[in-house]
Amino acid sequence: MLTSLEPLINGILLGGLYAVIGIGLSMIFGIMKQVNLAHGELMILSSYFSLLFSQLLGLPPLLTLILVFPASFIFGYLLQAFLFNRVLGKGMEPYLMISFGLSIILQNALLLIFTPDARSLKTGLIIQTLDVYGLLHVPVIYLVDFAGGVLMIGFLHLFMKRTYLGRAIRASADDLSASKLMGINIRKIYALAMGIAAVTAAMSGVLVGMTFTFYPHSGTQYLIIAFGVVIIGGMGSLPGTFLGGLILGISQLVGAQFLGPGFQLLSGYLILLIVLTIRPQGLLGRK
Amino acid sequence: MASNWIRLIIIVLFLIVLTTLPLWASRYAVSVLLLIYLYMTVASMWNLLAGYSGLISLGQQMFIGIGGYTLAVVSMYYGIPIFLGVLLGGVLSVILAILISQPVFRMKGVYFAIGTWIIAEALGISFSNWGYVRYGMGLFIQPAYKLSMSSIYYAAMILGVGSIALVYLLLRSNLGLALMAIRDDDVASEAMGVNIFRCKLTCFLISAFVTGLAAGVLYLNTIFIQPFEAFGIGWTVKLLFIVIIGGLGTVEGPILGAVIFVLLQQFLSEYIGFNLIILGTITILTIFFAPKGIIGTFHEKISVELFPIRRQ
Fold it and tell me: Among B41, B168, B198, B232, which is least packed by CB within 10 angstroms?
């Protein structure tokens, strides 16, 4: 009886992971009104960073976050400072295309360095399942994903609300000219915001690497998931992103349950296309 | 007047050289030129959307997949003549475009880009789960073995030259005038009675049809079709490169871009891992230093256009 609830519960847990995949994309859109098509590659890059650190230093994947976070932050900061800031204020297309070019470059650079083999971040958690009175089986790794996702989003929320930098970022998102007049250095703020977005990507990259296998080309797949989350929930809305993650996670796993595993991605896409058609700004997005 | 004659003579001479090419050039040269035509066709259709209609589609590969699969299925399973199969591919692409036009035209800007991309991805997954087209294993288009290289060459040439002529004539027509008015000021043009939805839809359907046709000829050349390749985002990467390098919103841009792309691909084919890295880097540098592409920058410096779309 309760086993029929498994896809639902696992979908919710997976949704927490999806939310953190989408949060960086949503943030950049909310702040700069731009879409970073290289977000998936930032994620997978962090998965490889973590792989490298855990192999070199023998750390478990979650501990490598101590090193992966700063590395990703610096990478994101430099990307915005040297690439994206050059096309600020020139509309949507140049940003879209530069990030697209960047994603191709990163993808193929990873392919050259790490070969096309499937990799995963080895952890003992992957084989454990939580047994709820013999009625329900929940993989422990999904619980870790959910907890990681919720923690990341919670920290981001507090950061945006409480710190000076967070307020400056929100100010520049709300009114660009007014925040410039108040002495906020927009270019620096944008670079820092991209660094933070890269940190959220790093979190999701490491969680994904622990849960699934990844390849140099996996970025595209996760970019689409990030889009799904952000579009269902609404671009630039933090609670919306969380809701979007849950809906996408549930629709994928429930869809896979009823239609077969080949349709897991497809059922997610269908929900996404329905939302795009009926409510393009997302469930909790503003027009 | 005189410059019009010179222009016409140049174009006619060029066409004579291209038509007689299979008679005197090497097989390799013919195969390279064939690819140039096809990429030129698909790229100028993307350019019609992105450069003139403000519709940045990341999902043109859906028409490539549909065109290719239609050809494969009707020519193999039903024994329909090959070039009729190519035509059917175009027709089915238009039908797909009509079906999705209602939802995708509700999406604006970046949502349109993402929406079209996701439709293409969803189609790719559906085809890879569909036993009728042998799942993800793909199909060999066996009837295409019988075709000679030169017949594929001429089909590709008709498409390449035809698509450029089509874009040129479209832009010189009332539709082109309306598109430029929309690009300059959409509110004002709508107030003057331009039906924005209809103009954009017309471009979308035309580009679907021609892209579907080009896909058929493309797969006559490759012979093997597989869902994740046919519906893959890789096609959009190539189109973007071709149009950005050549010049977005110029008729000649996709021609020059396709020549550069195909030649680069030939030269870089030995460095398999590096070629996309180099393409990506060139694209980014072009956006930084020549945002209008080679042709656009050229037009700014010297006002000579091979295909002037403005009325004098």
Answer: B198
C-alpha span between B30 and A148 (Å, rounded): 56
* Partner B, chain A 20-39, Cβ-Cβ below 8 Å: 35
Q: Is B129's CB within 8 Å of A262's CB?
A: yes
DSSP for A206-225, please give it: HHHHHHS-B-TTHHHHHHHH
- pTM, full prediction: 0.88
Amino acid (1-letter code) at residue A267 = S
Q: Is residue A283 part of a domain?
A: no
Give the residue from A274, A135, A163, A98 showing the smallest Cα distance to B118: A274
Contact list in B for residue A220 (CB cut-off 8 A) is 233
**Mutating which of B102, B119, B125 best tests the A interface, going by the most A Cβ atoms within 10 A?**
B125
* Nearest to A112, CA basis, from A123, A120, A104: A104
Domain-embedded: residue A179: yes
Helix (H, G, I), strand (E, B) or coil at B67: helix
**A36 within domain boundaries:** yes
Q: Determine, for residues B125 and A86 on separate chains, whether the beta-carbon distance falls below 8 Å.
A: no
**What is the token pair recorded at A252?**
């994928």
Q: What tokens does A165 get?
A: 């930098």
Structure tokens at A211: 């849960």
Residue A95 touches partner B, C-beta closer than 8 Å:
no
Give which of A83, A86, A95, A104 to mutate to test B binding, by max B Cβ within 10 Å. Answer: A104
Read off the tokens for A160: 């945006």
* 3-state SS class at B14: helix
A88 part of contact set with chain B, CB < 8 Å? no
Distances (CA, A) of A157 to A163, A226, B31, B50, B186: 10, 18, 57, 37, 38
Give the count of domains, chain A: 1
- Contact assessment for residue A229 and residue A21, using Cβ atoms and an 8 Å cutoff: yes
Domain range holding A121? 2-278
Give Cα A128 to chain centroid, integer Å.
Answer: 25
Task: Give the dihedral of Cα atoms B176, B179, B181, B184; nearest 10 deg.
Answer: -130
Kindly determine whether residue A101 and residue B284, on different chains, have CB atoms separated by under 8 Å: yes
- Give me the CATH number covering residue A261: 1.10.3470
Nearest to A268 by CA among B37, B121, B251: B121
On the question of pLDDT at B88 being above 80, the answer is yes
Q: A285 in a domain, yes or no?
A: no
* Section B272-287 average pLDDT: 86
CB A282 within 8 A of CB B138: no
The rounded distance, in Å, linking the Cα atoms of A151 and A171 is 24
Residue A129 bridge partners (DSSP)? A139
**pLDDT tens-place string over residues A78-95:** 999 999 999 988 877 888
Q: Extract the tokens encoding B126.
A: 């559906």
Taking residues B195-221, what's their average pLDDT? 94
Report the relative pairing of strands A129-132 and B224-225 from DSSP bridges: unpaired
What's the pLDDT score for residue A132?
A: 74
- The answer, for B84 touching chain A at a CB cutoff of 8 Å, is no
Residue B131 per-residue DSSP state: G
State the complex-level ipTM. 0.84
Within 13 Å and on the Cβ side, how many CA atoms surround B44?
28
φ/ψ of residue A139, rounded to 5:
-65, 135
